[in-house]
From TrEMBL:
Record keyword Translocase present: no
Residue span, Sigma-54 factor interaction domain: 153-373
PANTHER family: TRANSCRIPTIONAL REGULATORY PROTEIN, TWO COMPONENT SIGNAL TRANSDUCTION SYSTEM SIGMA54-DEPENDENT RESPONSE REGULATOR FIS FAMILY
Any one GO MF annotation of this record: ATP binding
Protein name, UniProt field: Histidine kinase
Keyword Transcription assigned: yes
GO biological process: phosphorelay signal transduction system; regulation of DNA-templated transcription
Residues spanning the signal sequence: none
Source organism of this protein record: Alteromonas australica
Alphabetical keyword list: ATP-binding, DNA-binding, Kinase, Nucleotide-binding, Phosphoprotein, Transcription, Transcription regulation, Transferase
Modification type 4-aspartylphosphate: residues: D52
């Protein structure tokens, strides 16, 4: 089912257009501000946009609509956009059509003409999708998904797709990469993805978490140590740079590296040379560096805790992994990955996608482990995950984009004795939308 985004600050317009499009078989998402619209297009697969030209009270210039149009085009140059205009904004609308807008419709609109225009644009988009270049994009997308799955990276969001695309692009080179993002967001998985798709994928891949090592041992871990170099050094130790020679070294939590270690790391990056602790013999190494941090290195540089010259050596290319709170689609996909073949209720899905997951993927994975132990059988709701729900079981508002199944609708009819208003509220549909589903599934109900 094609998904259409309607952007208008007038609730009556949103309702009228939603009903019209739903009757004709389209899935509808609405936004009342340009910011909401851009977030939706950024994270959902939208086939067409209907957008107003003004969003602030007493504004009739059409400048807001113009700004939104170009912002949407920047996100997706191929996205068809129909402008909803008043006569005062007609000049802007015509100019935007010349700039690439699909069409414009005046207020009040003609339902037949609007649906005809939408149908034609959707059909045109489907026809274009068969073009070879789009097929190639689809192949690249599938290939990216397969590569990510090979290292255990699970995602569905557009935000994470962009991260994966960049990771695959930089994998082909040997330049240092700095991966930033909060703890547990998947930085290590991105590092594994880069290494797995690089020319060095069959060479050594050595990982070291600088944040998990005592400060006094970090340099010995990285560069090695001769026997007697420090109290517990009973024998010569090979460092991670030596072990990774010819391959890739992943330095996690790089922001915790002490300044003395930073000096040595900078030297290795500049010259490929280092000495073990307690040795005067210079060794040579050739490794690709991938580093990661959850710290604000710019602030650390300003505070004198991190060397600016090292930062620029490490940060040839930066890949930022967004927190799970900005990747709602990923949260549900990850739960289904960690708990395969388990049924999740509407309230459970809503809670999973709306909960901010401050601990990111690690927190979510731990929650799934608890659920698997404490609730090994039956459907899983918000309570099973120990998540807060903004709505009770009796008043579920389904997140835009989810669709109740026939079984869920029938269960709700039984639960509320066929009272349509209560059933509609429970499954997150308007009464008109619910009636259409009932007719579609040929379900009998009280009138």
């Amino acid at each position: 089912m094609k998904k259409i985004l309607i952007v208008d600050d007038n609730a009556a317009v949103l309702e009228a257009l939603s009903l019209l499009l739903e009757i004709h078989g389209y899935q509808v998402v609405t936004a009342s501000t340009p910011k909401e619209a851009l977030q939706i297009v950024n994270y959902q697969a939208i086939s067409l946009v209907l957008q107003d030209m003004n969003f602030s009270a007493d504004t009739t210039s059409g400048e807001e609509g113009k700004t939104l149009f170009f912002a949407l085009r920047e996100l997706n140059p191929l996205l068809p956009i129909i402008l909803i205009t008043a006569w005062t904004e007609l000049e802007h609308a015509v100019a935007l059509v010349k700039a690439g807008a699909a069409d414009y419709i005046p207020k009040p609109w003609d339902d037949v003409k609007l649906i005809t225009t939408v149908n034609n644009l959707i059909a045109l988009g489907e026809a274009s999708a068969t073009h070879q270049s789009v097929k190639q994009q689809s192949t690249l997308y599938d290939s990216a998904k397969q590569a990510a799955r090979s290292v255990g990276l699970v995602y569905e969001s557009a935000a994470m797709q962009r991260v994966v695309d960049m990771a695959l692009q930089v994998a082909k080179s040997d330049v240092p990469v700095l991966i930033t993002g909060p703890n547990g967001s998947g930085k290590e998985k991105i590092a594994e993805l880069i290494q797995s798709q690089s020319p060095l994928r069959h060479a050594a891949f050595v990982k070291v978490n600088a944040g998990a090592l005592p400060q006094e041992l970090i340099e010995a871990e990285l560069f090695g140590a001769e026997a007697g170099a420090f109290t517990s050094a009973n024998k010569s130790r090979i460092g991670r740079f030596e072990a990774a020679n010819g391959g890739t070294l992943f330095l996690d939590e790089i922001g915790t590296l002490p300044l003395s270690g930073q000096v040595k790391l900078l030297r290795v990056l500049q010259t490929g040379e280092f000495e073990k602790l307690g040795s005067v013999k210079t060794q040579h190494t050739n490794v690709r560096i991938i580093s990661a941090t959850n710290a604000d290195l710019a602030s650390d540089i300003a505070n004198g805790h991190f060397r600016e010259d090292l930062f620029y050596r490490l940060n040839v290319i930066e890949i930022n992994v967004p927190p799970l709170s900005e990747r709602g689609d990923d949260a549900l996909a990850l739960v289904q990955h960690f708990l395969p073949n388990r049924e999740i209720s509407l309230t459970g899905k809503q809670a999973i996608t709306q909960y901010p997951w401050p601990g990111n993927v690690r927190e979510l994975e731990n929650a799934c482990r608890r659920v698997d132990i404490l609730h090994p059988h039956g459907p899983l709701n918000a309570d099973a995950f120990g998540l807060p729900s903004s709505h009770s079981e009796d008043t579920v508002l389904v997140k835009a984009g989810s669709e109740p199944t026939e079984a869920e609708i029938q269960a709700a009819l039984v639960r509320y004795n066929g009272v349509i208003a209560q059933v509609a509220k429970h499954v997150g549909l308007s009464r008109q939308a619910l009636y259409r589903r009932l007719d579609k599934y040929k379900i009998s109900y009280k009138s």
